[in-house]
Amino acid sequence: MSLILGIIVVTVFSLLLLAMAGDKQKGNIALFAVLINAVLSSCIAIPTLCGSSFEQIFYGGNVFGQIAIRADALSGWFILLMNFTMLTGILYGRRYMKHYENPPGRNPEGSANLTLHFASYIINHFAMIGIYCVQNSLAFLCVWELMALSSFILIIFEYGKFEVLKAGINFLIQSHIGIMFMTLGFIWVNSRAGSFDFNAIATYAASVSPAVSFILFLCFFIAFAIKAGFVPFHTWLPYAHPVAPAHVSGVMSGVIIKLGIFGILRMLLLIKGDFLALGYFILAISVITGVYGVILAIIQHNIKKLLAYHSIENIGIIGIGIGLGCIGLGLNNPYLAFAGFAGAMLHTLNHSLFKSLLFYSAGTVYQATHTLDIEQLGGLIKKMPQTATLFLIAALAICGLPPFNGFISEFLIYSGLFKGILESPLISTVFLVSSVLGLVIIGGLAMLCFTKAFGVIFLGNERHQLPATVHEAEFTKLFPKYLIATLIILIGIVPQIFVKAISGPTALFTGKNILQQEPVAFIETLQAVSLAVIALILLSLIIWWLRKMVTRSAVIVESSTWGCGYAAPTAKLQYTANSFVRPFRKLIHPLLMMNKTENALIGIFPNPVHSETHPYDKLERVIIDIPLKYLKGFIGQFRFLQNGNPQFYILYGVVFIFIVITIPLLMNALAYLNELIKQIGQ
Amino acid sequence: MSIVSFLLIIFTSLFFTGIVIRTKSIFSGRKGPGFFQPLKDIRRLFRKGAVYSKTTSFIFQIAPSIYFASVLMAIFMVPFGNQPGIISFQGDFIFFAYALALGKFFIIISALDTGSSFEGMGASREALYSLLVEPAFFILMGSFALLTGHTSFYEIFGSLHFGSYISYGEGTLAAIVLVFIALIENSRMPVDDPKTHLELTMVHEVMILDNSGFDLGLILYSTNLKFAMYGALIANFFLTPGYEWYYSLPIFIGVQIVFAVIVGTVESFMARFRMNHNPQYIFMLTSISLLIFIGVLILKKFV
Q: The complex's ipTM?
């Protein structure tokens, strides 16, 4: 009771304080509010991971009924990983927002905007704690809506720009489509079971046939998949991420889209249907999501858009884990179930770490160079060596390379998939092999993408005249990034500790009794992995040292890059991001949509020509743009109704009320007629 | 005893490229250099000074060392018949592939570090080809995991036995796939010609244009190591358990020699493909490994 009350009090109090404080203090107030809320919610979360559960029930009046606040190990795990990213987010964001502060006394509008931003950040954190704990569907919808609205305000910080508002509204609409599906599911359960409590979902789902519970699950799945960004519900993501401030993008990609993953996992706990079918369904959609996300990521030239598509890819990897876990449950194979769910949940943490690090680094680059177009960057490693190294660590981690954390979760999922191939019936084997294929392709493509991103942004020479003031960010901005990087390396080197921590939430799915052996087997393997990882690091160091020793007396000369004897190369001669991925783009051409505008060369001495290429999402065109066009055409027929005359609008109101009243009367009349005809028939 | 395979691979790596070069010179009717000429070249490189481009950063300096370390790490995992590698655990072949990928990542970004258009070109090609090769390797390992019921190199090769004609077929196909993978991963014919002198047509060689001295020596020697490593993997398909060391040792050496001669022969008689035909060629590998997988699936689930 006191903990929850504490969180509410801290939130309200800090919001009031925020409104009164000066611009310079707002960031610090937000930091303290988030810090205290994080500590309080961690007090709920940590005991749940150790095995105890947290439950409190409030009476929410006639409308809400009993509001149950429950936290199990699943909530605990998600709360902890969210707290970490929210903290690094505000640590970084408080410095990032310095650029938008005004001199005191001027431009009250800008100051209000800043207040609104930090307030939304605190509210967002509060709402997410709520989402993880509230188990009353009506109250859940309220906190979910709070989260959606505060995210919307966070995204549209620079509301003066057209594309920012457009992306924000796109996000708002798609979020609400998700909420619509969720509401549908909750109403369905409430109308059958008569309760808003989440346990009612479980009892209702257990009482109906597997096919019905599958449809119920589908309803919730769509709702949460829109938030998580599963293909084909991903289209809001690549718009919202690039326009938001960097720390918001990092938080959004790191934790807000993970709410979708949490929702799906929660529903899997409640709706225990035919897990095998569920597993095949999730696996198929996840492999498509992963591969499609990374394919589109490769051709992007806006760094934050590229990272946004990578979020879609990583959601795919997490989904593969969940699908594998479901198949494990369906086949009654605890090894698969453990590998799948543990891999998925660990990857959720991992992704929130390296993706937030990537977004923060991208934000630092943006604030230094004022561009997000990677074709204009280059050579930044010499001016920003620390940012470059941090970006490199995150890039290696997101490619799933050892010795970083991404490898560990992918390794868990891989071992599950391979083990599954050995021990399952034919159909599952086919599904699992396709997933292995998908995961391998995702890994390879991610490598292509991040060699491109890192190479073009940080290496080589400047491709464009950058401001002379480009320099390394100050320490307060780098500090949160170092925190994340430390955790990334820690998970990579001693994964066994984290897998042990994750066995709590995983046990909710696999059941307590088999928990004895599977994690132990895994932890043994991971100990060997950790040994191998350490060996790899040591080996690199030894060779590096050998190189140093041997070349100590050698003559080292500096010269220009080899250019076939051409001694005056310019930065324009460098390979661009576009040319780096060209062979790949040609290969998968049918899947892409490249909008190219180019004017033709005319005459013997042609004028300079201009050529522009913009990649576009083919799926978005098919499932959003074209239906929207027809919908607009259809609804446009009724535009005469909106003629601007208040009299007409009052008339519409009257007509509406009239119809609402007459429908029941008409129904009664029809029923009466029906009766009459029956009586005549007799 | 688990160090046996490591020592053997290091040993074979010493004369592997020598055999390849010798084969080529015999086929083209030249006298050719001696067996140990490649090694002598590398030894000289190790002692030479180096030239670094002004454009490069520390990435360019550390990349060759990490590349070399990643190859050594991969070699640690390779078993020798019924002797496990130095490091062996469930799913070690995943680590094997990803460790190699780490090295590749660094060598690609070190090429981009020079800011040269040629090296960017090579990096782009290398990244694409290596990503296309990966699925073949994973499907191959998946099929053998299914065939033997194990998920580590050592256990897979330890329990592999040639009971039926189909498994002979599987083994041969797998050896073929691995030969192809080795050729592509080491950038040899028909995907890439290490002896070409035109930067525009190179893949791997153009990436390391700016490396010199010790670093170049490391990169060149890791090619030898990688050849010997894939040769060891191929040899493992024929080192069936129960054989004493005096059988397995000659088999191992024999397979490596045959492999080297095959590489030399391929390079003597084949021309390099056009660049845009390479992906199709590499896709073929994935389809062969899928064929192997279907074969194993039929063997396990229906027979």
A: 0.94
